[in-house]
Amino acid sequence: MKTKTRAHRKLLEKDIEQYLCRQVERLGGKAYKFSSPANRAVPDRICCFPGGQIVFVECKAPGKHPTPLQLKVLKFLNILGNNVAIIDSKEKVDTLIKMVKEDMQNGANEQ
Fold first, then answer.
1. pTM for the whole thing?
2. Which domain holds residue 37?
3. In this structure, are strands 83-87 and 30-33 parallel, antiparallel, or unpaired?
């Protein structure tokens, strides 16, 4: 019986979430686990970055999609003026980190 090595196994939501946390911390931020027992479908992580930028992140396994209730919560948070992201791959984590870095650099240039 063959066992899948780590490099060959299918990525899970927890793998994406762990990668996100590492990348946020590399940038000097913190990715807090968001749990609200009285409110279902809140995003998985609140990512806080240097300079005050905050992004609510819903992590999914590759190819998976948020539930309608999760989408409703993300839309509401966005309407309130918050940054939100749905991430289902390491590449999307990298894209988010790149965008945050650019915003951080632009903010530093404006001061």
1. 0.88
2. 13-110
3. unpaired
Cα distances (angstroms) measured from residue 74 to each of 68, 69, 78, 86, 90: 10, 9, 6, 9, 20
3-state helix, strand, coil in the chain (%, to 5): 40, 15, 40
Under a CB-based contact definition with an 8 Å cutoff, are residues 17 and 45 in contact?
A: yes
Q: How many Cβ atoms are within 10 Å of 46's Cβ, its own excluded?
A: 16
3-state secondary structure of 58: strand
Q: Which two tokens stand for residue 107?
A: 């903010």
What CATH number should be reported for the domain holding residue 58? 3.40.1350.10
- Quick: pLDDT tens for 38-71: 999 999 999 999 999 999 999 999 999 999 999 9
